[in-house]
Amino acid sequence: MSSTTGLLAYCRQGFEPELAAELTERAALAGFAGYARAQRNDGHVVFVCEEAQALDRALPWRELIFARQKLRLLAELRGIDPKDRITPLLAALAGGGRYGDLWVEHPDSDSAKPLAGLARSFGNALRPALRKAGFLTEKDDARLPRLHVVFVQGDHLFLCAADARDSAPWPLGIPRLKLLPDAPSRSALKLEEAFLSLLDDAQREALLKPGMTAADLGAAPGGWTWVLTRHHLRVTSVDNGPLREHVLATGLVEHLRADGFHWKPPQPLDWMVCDMVEQPRRVAERMAQWFREGWCRHAVFNLKLPMKKRWDETKLCLELFAEQADRPLEIRARQLYHDREEITVFATPG
């Protein structure tokens, strides 16, 4: 068993260097010494730090961009005997308090996905053993930390803890959204996930009310417009390309054949959303103009990232957007599960 402490965070496979750079920089800015352990395509990053609890509090999950999940690392167990994984795990938990729930999982990577069956079966065996030893409550209790057992190999796992109020509420940090048959495109899942991940419960209730107005820039074939109409918003869909007929048939959509980079609304709108394929800095500047001119109150937009220096480009674009918007904004950004080489940004008056 290793006494490694710090944070364990999941990410999209291939984005481990970006997450490592983000954790390293954010930890340093918060005054914590440590270093990242990352290997490309592992789907996770370990940030080693002796002050794990304090660092965990200093880096809220909602503020991290490339982390699908953030966990506080309790121990790392290597070379476990497959015939008895439970005994060393219980020994590692000794003196560590009680937990209100148990998740046994694995990173979302090609190498770790085959461990899904092991995670399920081991969870079934571990749960009663934890309860018998007094480490796990008889019924789920969200007031207590959640215990995570994370397999990266059959004989190599991490023991972690998470605060339910400061971590992703979905196993592997992935919201399981279903693409409905009438969705015009798979991109609809991006906006659905953005509303779920980047807005809190109160914001979803207050900011997505029937009758609100919105613009969808670069709307064709209508995936994001369709999501907005499902919230009963009135949408101006701006794109020279066609929209699916059933999206127009909602009666909530006006389709304008125009360039989303040059069109401006005749009056202020509640929402603007944008998923146009364009250089990220150009998008950031255009989105900032919408807020600077008072054309919208809230926005969700995507920034397509370059192949290299993606963390640097992310910082630059978000700083550029915040500066040129010229007004106080609350800005949240994340690489969503349904994103690829991009991040999604939510902005609202701060």
Automatic annotation (TrEMBL):
The keyword NAD does not apply. The keyword Transcription regulation does not apply. Residues 185-277 form the Ribosomal RNA methyltransferase FtsJ domain. It comes from Pseudoxanthomonas mexicana. Belongs to the class I-like SAM-binding methyltransferase superfamily. RNA methyltransferase RlmE family. RlmM subfamily. Its EC number is 2.1.1.186. One of its GO terms (molecular function) is methyltransferase activity. Residues 84-159 form the Ribosomal RNA large subunit methyltransferase M THUMP-like domain. The gene is rlmM. This is Ribosomal RNA large subunit methyltransferase M. Monomer. S-adenosyl-L-methionine binds at residues 187, 220-223, 239, 259, 275. One of its GO terms (biological process) is methylation. InterPro entries: RlmM_FDX, RlmM_THUMP-like, RNA_MeTrfase_FtsJ_dom, rRNA_MeTrfase_M, SAM-dependent_MTases_sf. Keywords: Cytoplasm, Methyltransferase, rRNA processing, S-adenosyl-L-methionine, Transferase. Catalyzes the 2'-O-methylation at nucleotide C2498 in 23S rRNA. It holds the Pfam family RLMM_N. Residues 6-71 form the RlmM ferredoxin-like domain. Its main location: cytoplasm. It is found in: Cytoplasm. The lineage of its organism: Bacteria, Pseudomonadati, Pseudomonadota, Gammaproteobacteria, Lysobacterales. It catalyses: cytidine(2498) in 23S rRNA + S-adenosyl-L-methionine = 2'-O-methylcytidine(2498) in 23S rRNA + S-adenosyl-L-homocysteine + H(+). The active site is at 304 (proton acceptor).
